[in-house]
Design a protein that fits this description.
The complex is a heterodimer of chains A (194) and B (237). Chain A is mostly helical and 194 residues long. Chain A has 8 helices and no strands. Classes of the chains: A mainly alpha (194), B mainly alpha (237).
Amino acid sequence: MNSYIWKLRDIIMVSLLSIIFAVIYLGAVYFASFLGSVLTPVGLAPFGNEIVFGVWFMASTLAAYVMQKPGVAVVAEVLAALIEVLMGSMYGPMVFVAGIIQGVGAEIPFALGRYKKFNLTTMCLAATGSCIASFLWGFVRSGFGLLSIRLLAVMFLIRLMSSVIFSGVLCKSIGDGLAGTGLLKSYALGKSRG
Amino acid sequence: MNKLNPGYKFLTLLIASLVLSITYNIRLNIVVFIVSFAATALTRSVNKKKLFLVLLPFFLTSAGLFMSGFLFSSADNIANVTAAAGERVVYVTSWDSALKLSSRVLAFGGIGILFALTTNSMDFIMSLMQQFRLPPKFAYGLLAAYHFFPVVRDEYEIVRSALAVRGIKAGPLSKKRFFPMLVHAFERSESIAMAMESRGFDSDAERGVAFSVPFGKIDFVFLFAVNAGVIAGIMLI
């Protein structure tokens, strides 16, 4: 089960999932900028981004949960980022770098569990991993160093909550729902349900 | 712009973005945005309406960052800003920072639009396979999924109609619509894979390509010229 080999079926499944999430990611970009501009008059524009941030890790945790193989989280996130760039994200090719970093962030907790443990805790840890990785990247990419520490702390907390809710809890329930349909018989998640 | 090799164009713009991310040069960021915008608008194949639509959200974001700075700077005495204006104060530490952040959004956005609107997805993925050693299994798998996406989207609409017939209202993000879409996507991926394999798709076999993505000196020139330009910009502007 813990094989590095990707079957064509796996690739197409992860690709389709990534494309669906790329559309959602792009929608989230628009929504975040809308939310940001609503919050602008009170000077809270950056929080618009933080509230939806967890949505941007969903492809990696969901794909990893379904396939339970090494590398899935990274590949899914990178593909989703690549497609998002192609569709015209306002963050440009940097989304691709962010995709790699967030994917690796999600991958680490799964790797620490040796790809054997896939429960709510590891899902939430994976979401937290992405959250931390993306936040560190924010210092390079978005100049977080220019912001005050108090603001950064609040931003981090909001992002963490968003990550755990969307990419941890929500993705697990989506995965469980899919497994419940019996469609995932050929994937690790379906097998574990017997 | 659309004559360049898509893979190298991506690499070029990615490096340019990374180089830009080490600097907070406001004027350079604005120059980068204007140049990218001009290059996009001057490319004949670009849909001008789409260009405008894509531009809209990041003008909003950029304006959002800018406005926060503006509100902050309108406070007369920076040292004496109290908790009443507190949330604003913690946002950016100065007017200058606000400009730096908002000009950065513009620069990255300009580069992103330049790439997205002048690049054909199929050419890009083929280029990744032909010039950047993306395994064919991934390239064609991704393409198959990419071209199948409209079907998934249509099914998403069908589910909406089916629910509407039964008098159930479901918003665009409702679980009642989203979940069946995922289920369909999983079913599709199984059958696409089976269809490809039954027609003899084999990733490891020696393969020729029907669509060869051109790649030449011009791509290297572009790679070096753009990045030399950005580095020169950092030093000179």
